[in-house]
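Hello forum,

I keep getting stuck at the same step: I have a sequence, I want structure tokens, and every attempt I make locally crashes halfway through. Rather than fight my setup again tonight, could one of you with a working pipeline run this one for me? It's a single chain of 493 residues.
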Amino acid sequence: MHIDELRSPLLRVLLERGFVKDCTDLAGLDREMASGVVPAYVGFDLTAPSLHVGSGIPLMAARHMRRAAVEAGQHTMGAAVDAVHILFGDATTRVGDPSDKNGARPIIGPEEIQRNLVGIRRCIDRFVGEAMGEHMNSTWLDRLSFMDFLTGPAREISLNRLVATDVVSRRLDNQLPMTLMELIYQAMQAMDFAHLARSRGVRLQIGGSDQWSNIIAGVDLARRMHDIPVFGMTMPLLTDAEGRKMGKTAGGATVWLDPSRTSSFDLWQFWRNVPDAKVGEFLGLFTELPMDEVRMWGASEGAAINEAKAILATEAVAIAHGREAAEQAADAAKASSTRGVMDDAAALASLPTVGCPVNPDTTLITVAEAMVHAGIAESKAAARRLAAQGGFRINGVRIEHVDLPIEERDFADGHMILSAGRRKHVRMTAWPLGPSLRAVSARIVEENGGTFGVMGSWDWGDTGLVEDDIARGLPDRATAEERLKRVRTVSGK
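Reply #2:
Ran it on my machine without issues. Output:
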């Protein structure tokens, strides 16, 4: 259908902004949306402590859906209709979506699932808000006995369809082992849709295009088991101009939505560095700018495309992390060269900061290990590749050999700046003591014949030791004292 043929304002918005890739029945969905709110759901397995940046696409679609329901004034018993339901797949997480890898995914325990739930819910709340229907699929899947499954859903689920999915067929064609548990994953997701359709009135499932076969299975099962007409819609994945999946930094690290895992500065830089050809598409998907502005900025060329990327970065970070964090990241990015960052106190304060994991004066740590710890590179191999390509600097100086040790003198003014390219910078501190622990540290050092220095360092004769209590997260005074006693023992003083 052409956008001009759509009657639903919401569906027109989703189509115009680029959210609709495939739909089981676009004309039918348009009729339903034109007559009222169509409750939808999006599901997330709890396999990681945060959602990655690509998950922002269905979350932004959910954001538009929820706003449309509020604007339409749809109410039930005095409360706004939950236009968007969030399904947390704690049960499906224990099984795992099958992949092309040889062997099943490792089983995740309940404690890790609970921790991941906290981080993922925090990401979702920033995009969609807290007042919504939330469900854990263990609520119904854990109650389903094996015989109930065999005589109920299993009678309606096509084995031919399960085997025909891309991942399963490739595993079988390549004669790679596959367990019944993995094969059942799609059936479990289909049961989620059928259950929500019957018990919550959900009529639409949205997800990435890689979930198409799973969504189709749910549409079919809801119709077969409960005679409920439902719809499925998929959205594009986050890809570059060549169709390759995006979501990694220049150093190979995953770009997460949780600011505790990917800083606002790093997320801003990720969006600032997207391919020119994708700027218009991402402005439509990841911002709320009017479409006239999206089209204008998306058509930019030359120097103007860099301004368009900066707008994309600021607006996308504002939704994911908040407006204040986005503005701070944008300000820090203005000092785009390493020397500019080092000379700009405000920019320096806005950089993501980590503490050196060891005392470089007493414990060997290589440049590559420091790069991995700082998130500049995902692995030591990635760090070597980045340096070999001339893309890594310490304090503005290009470094080619990253297997050499970090030295205390690298920490100018108590820190050093690790840079990947011209725009990704991380400050690594050289262990300044936290003020609450400074007095404790000074007393213990002086009691043992040392001299407590400025900046919280202390000197045991010819051995200079530096400790970073804050970076190491010391919880209390007793822990600080014990740490310093261990340092004294190791130093032989």
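The longest strand covers residues 40-45. If your local run keeps crashing, start a new thread with the error log.
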